Write a sequence for this structure.
């Protein structure tokens, strides 16, 4: 069990799972969560895009498991009021101490403005203001629980700094282990770094590369990720094509043998991550992760 002095997260192990289950029935998804726990993984982080509401899903997964930490990766701050995020997270924390992590993110301009009809402006200031309003929720709401542990989806240096000064750490996504190292250096010790790592297991080499490109298709059109990859040393003309170049795909996605894919995961731990959540890729975004997780668990634990 791993804990930090400044914010409690009771991860049963240092490696967890990131899984998009939004199109699964919640009953079937709960069964997947139970097997993830039984295999020895320490967490299940879930996204919030255009499907199910993430706090409700978190409650369902928490109730279906005994030790698994459930995290939001991430809860979109444009979807709910700061007070709703804070009070919802306090309630889950009160019911399941040490087992819920509220990951928050500013999302992306195309998703917010075109998909939601909202306004996307000054993401750093928007997040800072959102966190301040969360902190202003009075202590009479779930008294004695305290502030829920919260991480920020932080890619750039200023957002990483904010994740340390106004939150409990960062949840880097689609980054190299070296960027995990940079995040740790900016945050120092005492703050959580929970990095995501996509992996492609099984199939042919061609299949794995195709799954990686399919995974990167949407992300390669979003400015926040493009800027992150440029900071990490990739080239706009050759690597940031739609779906990513082969170089980008192989760098960001663990593929090859099960052992080679697992090595990408542990590289983030070596670079300073406290916990790594692996995302299993396949021929669709909501693929059943269990066959690959069974193979990976044999190598990782």
């Amino acid at each position: 069990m791993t804990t930090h002095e400044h914010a409690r997260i009771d991860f049963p192990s240092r490696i967890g799972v990131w899984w998009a289950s939004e199109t699964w029935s919640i009953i079937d998804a709960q069964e997947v969560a139970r097997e993830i726990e039984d295999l020895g993984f320490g967490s299940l982080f879930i996204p919030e895009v255009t499907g199910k509401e993430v706090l409700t899903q978190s409650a369902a997964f928490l109730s279906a498991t005994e030790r698994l930490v459930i995290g939001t990766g991430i809860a979109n701050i444009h979807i709910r009021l700061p007070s709703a995020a804070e009070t919802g997270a306090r309630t889950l924390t009160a019911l399941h101490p040490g087992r819920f992590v509220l990951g928050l993110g500013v999302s992306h301009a195309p998703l917010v403005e075109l998909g939601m009809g909202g306004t996307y402006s000054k993401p750093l200031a928007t997040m800072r203001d959102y966190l301040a309003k969360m902190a202003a929720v009075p202590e009479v709401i779930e008294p004695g629980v305290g502030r829920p542990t919260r991480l920020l989806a932080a890619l750039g240096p200023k957002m990483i700094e904010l994740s340390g000064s106004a939150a409990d750490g960062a949840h880097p996504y689609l980054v190299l282990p070296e960027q995990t190292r940079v995040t740790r250096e900016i945050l120092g010790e005492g703050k959580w770094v929970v990095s995501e790592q996509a992996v492609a297991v099984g199939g042919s080499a061609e299949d794995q590369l195709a799954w990686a490109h399919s995974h990167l298709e949407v992300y390669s059109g979003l400015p926040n990720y493009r800027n992150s990859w440029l900071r990490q040393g990739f080239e706009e003309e050759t690597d940031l094509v739609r779906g990513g170049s082969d170089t980008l795909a192989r760098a960001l996605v663990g593929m090859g043998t099960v052992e080679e894919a697992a090595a990408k995961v542990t590289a983030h731990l070596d670079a300073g991550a406290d916990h790594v959540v692996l995302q299993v890729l396949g021929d669709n975004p909501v693929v059943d992760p269990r066959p690959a997780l069974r193979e990976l668990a044999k190598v990782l634990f």
